[in-house]
Automatic annotation (TrEMBL):
<keyword id="KW-0239">DNA-directed DNA polymerase</keyword>
<dbReference type="GO" id="GO:0006271">
    <property type="term" value="P:DNA strand elongation involved in DNA replication"/>
</dbReference>
<dbReference type="GO" id="GO:0008408">
    <property type="term" value="F:3'-5' exonuclease activity"/>
</dbReference>
<dbReference type="GO" id="GO:0009360">
    <property type="term" value="C:DNA polymerase III complex"/>
</dbReference>
<dbReference type="InterPro" id="IPR022637">
    <property type="entry name" value="DNA_polIII_beta_cen"/>
</dbReference>
<comment type="similarity">
    <text>Belongs to the beta sliding clamp family.</text>
</comment>
<keyword id="KW-0808">Transferase</keyword>
<keyword id="KW-0238">DNA-binding</keyword>
<keyword id="KW-0235">DNA replication</keyword>
<dbReference type="InterPro" id="IPR022634">
    <property type="entry name" value="DNA_polIII_beta_N"/>
</dbReference>
<keyword id="KW-0963">Cytoplasm</keyword>
<dbReference type="Pfam" id="PF02767">
    <property type="entry name" value="DNA_pol3_beta_2"/>
</dbReference>
<dbReference type="Pfam" id="PF02768">
    <property type="entry name" value="DNA_pol3_beta_3"/>
</dbReference>
<dbReference type="GO" id="GO:0003887">
    <property type="term" value="F:DNA-directed DNA polymerase activity"/>
</dbReference>
<protein>
    <recommendedName>
        <fullName>Beta sliding clamp</fullName>
    </recommendedName>
</protein>
<dbReference type="InterPro" id="IPR046938">
    <property type="entry name" value="DNA_clamp_sf"/>
</dbReference>
<keyword id="KW-0548">Nucleotidyltransferase</keyword>
């Protein structure tokens, strides 16, 4: 095996696949990147047996072949090389020669035949969605997925395709994030993807309007982004019936500027963090919303102007959950909808209905 290409090409390619390299494994081969040279292109593959990433790029091929290299060592070497052409050659003694200007490394490799093949997925039918939209959908939902491994289904996000709409939903038992987007589809489907998978896809995606192709099978999902393929196992189990959780009515509806609300809650949370549950209290009445927090270190009170439709209300929330949602909403104004002080609150943008964030309140002590 022998090929050459620019250093920046190798850096970009290894950065993409390295996201799937296993960090916790007893199998040394899974800590490696599979490198194969075919005709005029280079194929790089990495997998932790849950996620697999394959990336191809054009190179100058002198001799075809394959090898597996330690991912961490290889990527660090490539990054430290001069910004020039790199020539890589596999020698007979299973050593990989990496040459760039006046630098030369020789590193020990693994047998490529020991590297696990990625699952084979028939790409007969795929859904299509623009990269910028899918990236936004991930950003606005996946943060609400659970970290609790005892409830595996909730550590992922539901991808539900209904006609030409994709619903992406994540929840952890305290909050729920729902983002809707348009997708090219003729077959309805729903799967649960690990949050880790979506986070890795998010890092590969660009803000371009180019299309991402998605193929779903019974056990796997395949994402094709340009010359990169990502294959992920799906989470097994039944996702919570989220539509039944979202309130259809409200008794109090608040219209407020997003940044004013975020800034006020962040200031109030400076003291809330010293308490046990990050609690901030909202007192909503007429055209004013008072946000307060108490702890052993003191108390804070913020007032912001609002537009109120319906009843006055007092309600408390975990400040972190509110801040997480407000940070990813792009609208200048948001609606807050409440029913009672013990019922879930709803947060959504004023200008559209494609995003809904539900958050459970914290019970206020009566003393």
């Amino acid at each position: 095996m022998r090929f050459s290409c620019e250093k920046k090409t190798l850096v970009h390619s290894t950065t993409i696949v390295q996201k799937a390299v296993s960090s916790k494994t007893t199998l040394p081969i899974l800590k490696g990147i599979y490198i194969e040279v075919l005709e005029n292109y280079l194929k790089l593959v990495a997998t932790d047996l849950e996620i697999g990433i394959e990336h191809t790029v054009e190179v100058n091929t002198y001799q075809e072949g394959a090898v597996v290299v330690d991912a961490r060592l290889f990527s660090e070497i490539i990054r430290k090389l001069p910004d020039a052409k790199v020539e890589i050659t596999l020698k007979e003694n299973n050593q990989l020669s990496i040459k760039c200007e006046n630098s030369e490394f020789n590193i020990v490799c693994y047998d490529p035949q020991d590297f696990p093949e990625l699952p084979s997925i028939e790409e007969e039918y795929s859904y299509e969605i623009t990269q910028d939209l899918f990236k936004n959908m991930i950003r606005q939902t996946v943060f609400a997925a659970s970290q609790d491994e005892t409830r595996p289904v909730l550590t992922g996000a539901l991808m539900e395709i209904e006609e030409d709409t994709l619903n992406m939903v994540a929840l952890d038992g305290y909050r729920l994030a729902l983002r809707k987007g348009k997708i090219q589809a003729s077959i309805d489907n729903k799967v649960i993807l690990p949050a880790k998978t979506l986070n890795e896809i998010n890092r590969i995606l660009t803000d371009e309007e180019e299309t991402i192709h998605i193929t779903l099978t019974e056990n796997h999902a395949l994402f094709i982004i340009g010359t990169t393929k990502l294959i992920s196992r799906l989470l097994e189990g039944e996702f919570i019936s989220y539509k039944q959780i979202i309130p259809k009515e409200y008794k109090s509806k608040v219209k407020v500027k997003t940044k004013s609300l975020l800034d006020s809650i962040e200031r109030a949370s400076l003291l809330a963090r010293e308490g046990k549950n990050n609690l901030v209290k909202f007192v909503i009445d007429d055209d004013k919303m008072t946000i307060s927090s108490n702890s052993e270190l003191g108390k804070v009170q913020e007032e912001i102007f609002i537009e109120l439709e319906g009843d006055s209300i007092e309600i408390a929330f975990n400040s972190k959950y509110f801040i997480d949602a407000l940070k990813i909403i792009e609208d200048e104004e948001v609606y807050l909808e409440f029913t009672t002080s013990l019922s879930p609150g709803i947060l959504k943008p004023v200008t559209n209905d494609y995003y809904i964030y539900l958050i459970l309140p914290v019970r206020l002590s009566t003393n």
